């Protein structure tokens, strides 16, 4: 006997469908790190907030890698990752920078922070809509984690060198606007997605990784900030080199020969003669 007040049973496949725990666990940890950075910025603990943003960046890089290695990609994970990125690399860096340095600039300060926050939102929206049509080797616009690393790196380096936000507020404002505009630009940045972690590499690569870890551990604030400054500048340097190469290529192309120019001009002259000889063209 049918019971109209009961919901129909879903198919077995739909009832069993859920979410993957492992990659979403890392996404949740990245979201927590971004939220923790906001809380610490409100408590005037800016160095802790900057470190939390870097931790969120590491966790955000791991969740996608783990999902691909374990074949646990899902649409839910992709959307959840975008929302987590908006908090950790959009709202958190903007608030940290505003509380640390931009607050003393008045309207210009919160406008600069909003430009960064809006740039992060637009960057994530464009990435989600263009993910199937862009070259996987490059990012269109500065990635939001790298932009957040610029903001957090400046705060971390300045505090480590006993510099206040009021002393660096104009530099902080310029860097914040630069990071926000770079995220929505069409400049290409290397993505690193062509690196295959399951492929064997020469022994020298392992030595290089050890040296890189040693370099970062020697002075984390300065090294990390310097690396992300170089990464942010690399996209514009490559864009300038491509523009210069295209310009040289156009200049090196030979001009059209005189005979070709005359042949191109002859039909127009013939057309003019025909128009003059046409009685219908006369008044």
What characteristics describe this protein?
disordered C terminus; globular; mainly alpha
Describe the protein's topology.
Blueprint: H1 12-16, H2 21-42, H3 46-69, H4 75-100, H5 107-129, E1 138-140, H6 144-160, H7 169-183, E2 188-190, H8 203-218, H9 220-252, H10 258-277
Helix pairs in contact: 2-3, 2-4, 3-4, 3-6, 4-5, 4-6, 5-7, 6-7, 6-9, 8-9
How is this structure best summarized?
With 283 residues, the chain is mostly helical. 71% of the residues lie in helices and 2% in strands. It has a single domain (18-195, 207-247), classed as Four Helix Bundle (Hemerythrin (Met), subunit A) (Up-down Bundle).
Let me know the average pLDDT: 82
* Estimated radius of gyration: 28 Å
Class computed from helices, strands and strand pairing: mainly alpha
Distance between the termini: 93 Å
Q: What is the count of DSSP helices, taking H or I runs of 4+ residues?
A: 10
Shape verdict: globular
Q: What is the makeup of the main sheet?
A: 2 strands, antiparallel
Count of individual beta strands: 2
Number of domains: 1
CATH architecture: Up-down Bundle
CATH H-level name... which superfamily?
Answer: CDP-alcohol phosphotransferase transmembrane (TM) domain
Side by side, the strands of the main sheet go 1-2
Helix content: over 70%
Strand content: under 5%
How is the CATH topology named?
Answer: Four Helix Bundle (Hemerythrin (Met), subunit A)
Low-pLDDT runs of 5+ residues are 12-16, 261-283
H-E string: HHHHHEHHEHHH
């Amino acid at each position: 006997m049918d019971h109209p007040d009961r919901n129909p049973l879903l198919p077995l496949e739909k009832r069993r469908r859920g979410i993957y725990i492992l990659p979403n666990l890392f996404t949740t940890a990245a979201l927590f790190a971004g939220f923790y950075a906001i809380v610490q910025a409100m408590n005037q603990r800016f160095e802790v907030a900057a470190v939390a943003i870097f931790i969120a960046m590491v966790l955000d890089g791991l969740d996608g890698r783990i999902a691909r290695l374990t074949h646990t990609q899902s649409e839910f994970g992709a959307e959840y990752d975008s929302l987590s990125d908006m908090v950790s690399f959009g709202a958190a860096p903007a608030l940290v920078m505003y509380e640390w340095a931009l607050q003393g600039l008045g309207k210009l300060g919160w406008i600069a922070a909003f430009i960064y926050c809006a740039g992060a939102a637009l960057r994530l929206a464009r990435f989600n809509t263009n993910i199937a049509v862009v070259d996987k080797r490059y990012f269109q616009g500065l990635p939001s984690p790298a932009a957040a690393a610029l903001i957090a790196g400046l705060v971390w380096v300045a505090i480590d060198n006993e510099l206040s936000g009021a002393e660096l507020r104009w530099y902080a404002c310029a860097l914040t606007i630069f990071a926000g505009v770079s995220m929505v630009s069409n400049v290409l940045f290397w993505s690193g997605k062509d690196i295959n972690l399951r492929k064997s590499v020469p022994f020298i690569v392992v030595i290089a990784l050890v040296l890189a870890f040693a370099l970062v551990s020697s002075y984390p604030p300065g090294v990390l900030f310097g690396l992300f400054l170089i990464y942010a500048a690399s996209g514009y340097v490559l864009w300038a080199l491509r523009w210069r190469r295209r310009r040289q290529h156009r200049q090196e192309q030979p001009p059209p020969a005189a005979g070709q120019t005359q042949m191109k001009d002859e039909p127009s002259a013939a057309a003019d003669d025909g128009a003059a000889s046409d009685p219908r063209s006369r008044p």
